[in-house]
Write a structure and sequence with these properties.
Length: 573
């Protein structure tokens, strides 16, 4: 009996073992089958992403971003050296200590430097510069919006040379705007002969801008954000990597040549109490007033200056003379002004001088730019912000010695608040101040001051200085991408050319609507609306009676919708 029971147990165990073996084998087969399907699943799921990445030639874009970062960094270094070269003959120094050097000059030499510099700048503008003005940041935004990211290399290089000459001659302006345009010029030149998509070209334009800001300020994070915030006006992920590559490469080269330290070495500062935050908010209001005054002075001075009819060389020469006259009393207004900005951070200037320099620097910068000296507004904005903050800090500390923060903190906050309001770029400007000063412990105070200053300035003026410049040219980008698209698309982009065998009657009447291939979509849509027609003839440029194509209204709307969708996709992928 026991033997039979043992035999049955052995049989059950053997059967159980065989079942387990079969189950294991079945599981292994299913696992292997599933494993064999994994490559297909991966290819089906992710191949379109990779194909899109390669179709947009992103590996090439990344490589070009690296080359752009290298080229722009060395161009920025050469630009800085060129400023020192031009100021050497009359200031006897190539350093950035312009105010100290100017204070030791005889009065006639102080007048002669900007005056002769203005004469040379005006002569070059009149003879060789299209539009008789140097280009800067607003022109880069325009190139991105309506010029297919293309910049004339002659205009870009000549603008940079004029800016170096202007700043070396003592013009009160900034060096960052010209470097940004130079960086965009080099980026456009590097990618000019390559068949890249419009989005890739705009990304590479942003790479040039990011590298320029990064190399100028030794601020790679701020350079990346400035390109996204001001130039591209979006934060698409596909543009992020190339722009970061350019910005980091440019910063590394700049640090190799100039050292691994921020542009301004800041003093010790501290926030002694949270009760100071009302003072920080009041500083934001004060900075907004200074920013509004500065922008208003730039606008009014330009309008007044160009109502006076005189030869351009004479205009720029008189502009230089006026800047020299201001410098006789306040030599701190000459050039980029980093020396005075640094003194404001360390509270080395008396209160009366700080208050006077707000007006003197505003006047000197407005006169310089209205008189067509080449330069930007970034450095003057930082300058005005620093001295405004320093003056505010002197008053606040004197009034509330127990609660007042250190003077240097107010100067730093002022730098960010005025510059952000003038440029209309609060995010990148905040990061620029962090990286310029190396101070990240004031985050809350800086954000509060900057936001109030930007908000009040936008509430009063409605736009940044760059968008005001573009508005003078009829380009209102702050209204949305659809506005730039209707001005960027041309009739040639959606018209239907006549077949060789197709015969049409020529246009005979004056009232018959017609378009040119070079007309904008905006003009075409108005023509459809005014005429009530769904199809309008496109005539030859040299013969307005000869029809060469047809422009259908539905084709125009389809082209507009496609461009709008492409713009949306570019900004969100």
């Amino acid at each position: 009996m026991d033997q039979a029971t043992d035999s049955e147990g052995d049989a059950r165990r053997a059967g159980s073992g065989r079942s387990l073996t079969r189950a294991v084998r079945s599981g292994v087969r299913k696992g292997l089958d599933l494993l064999a399907q994994v490559p297909g699943i991966i290819i089906e799921r992710y191949a379109p992403n990779v194909q899109g990445f390669l179709a947009d030639r992103q590996p090439l874009v990344w490589l070009l971003a690296l080359l752009i970062g290298l080229a722009v960094a060395y161009a920025a270094i050469v630009f800085r050296l060129a400023i020192g070269f031009f100021q050497l003959p009359w200031l006897m120094t190539s350093s950035e200590r312009v105010a100290s050097a100017a204070a030791e000059l005889p009065w006639w030499q102080l007048l002669l430097g900007p005056t002769i510099g203005g004469l040379i700048v005006g002569t070059v503008l009149e003879r060789w510069m299209p539009g008789r003005r140097a280009h800067a940041v607003a022109d880069v935004i325009e190139a991105r919006a309506v010029r297919d990211s293309r910049i004339d290399p002659k205009v870009g290089l000549l603008s940079a040379g004029l800016a170096a000459l202007s700043l070396g001659s003592g013009a009160s302006a900034g060096r960052e705007g010209p470097v940004v345009h130079l960086g965009a010029t080099l980026a456009a030149l590097i990618q000019a002969r390559l068949d890249l998509s419009a989005g890739a070209r705009r990304t590479l334009l942003g790479c040039g801008v990011a590298a320029a800001v990064s190399a100028s300020f030794n601020a790679p994070i701020a350079g990346m954000l400035f390109a996204h915030e001001v130039i591209l006006a979006h934060y698409a992920m596909r543009a992020f990597v190339p722009i970061v590559i350019s910005s980091v490469v440019a910063a590394a080269i700049a640090r190799h040549h100039f050292g691994n330290f921020p542009a301004f070495v800041i003093p010790e500062y501290q926030i002694t109490s949270y009760l100071e935050f009302p003072a920080f908010a009041l500083l934001g209001v004060t900075c907004a007033l200074v920013a509004i005054m500065f922008e208003f002075a730039l606008m009014v001075t330009e309008r007044l200056t160009w109502r006076i009819d005189m030869p351009l060389p004479l205009r720029t020469m008189l502009t230089g003379l006026m800047v020299g006259l201001i410098a006789l009393v306040f030599p701190q207004v000459l050039g980029v002004g980093y020396e005075t900005t640094d003194q404001a951070l360390y509270q080395k200037l008396p209160l009366w001088l700080l208050l006077s320099l707000i007006l003197a620097k505003t006047a000197a910068t407005a006169i310089s730019l209205a008189g067509r000296f080449a330069g930007g507004i970034f450095s003057p904005s930082l300058y005005l912000g620093a001295i405004t903050g320093a003056a505010f800090g002197s008053i606040a500390v004197a009034a509330f010695p127990d609660l007042g923060a250190s003077h240097g903190l107010y100067a730093i906050l002022g730098m960010g608040a005025v510059a952000a309001a003038v440029l209309g770029a609060p995010i990148s400007t905040t990061l620029i101040v962090f990286e310029l000063t190396g101070g990240y412990q004031m985050t809350i105070a800086l954000l509060l001051t900057v936001s109030i200053s930007v908000g009040l300035t936008q509430a009063f003026l409605g736009q940044s200085y760059f968008h005001w410049q573009l508005g003078k040219r009829g380009l209102f980008l702050q209204e949305g991408p659809h506005k730039s698209i209707v001005r960027q698309l041309k009739v040639r982009d959606f018209m239907t050319p006549l077949e060789p065998a197709e015969q049409v009657d020529p246009i005979s009447g004056q009232d018959e609507p017609w378009l040119l291939a070079s007309d904008t979509l905006e003009r075409a849509l108005r023509a459809y609306d005014h005429s009530g027609r769904a199809r309008i003839p496109v005539v030859a440029d040299n013969d307005p009676t000869r029809i060469v194509a047809w422009a259908d209204r539905m084709a125009a709307l389809s082209a507009f919708n496609k461009a709008l969708i492409d713009s949306h996709v570019e900004q969100h992928r």
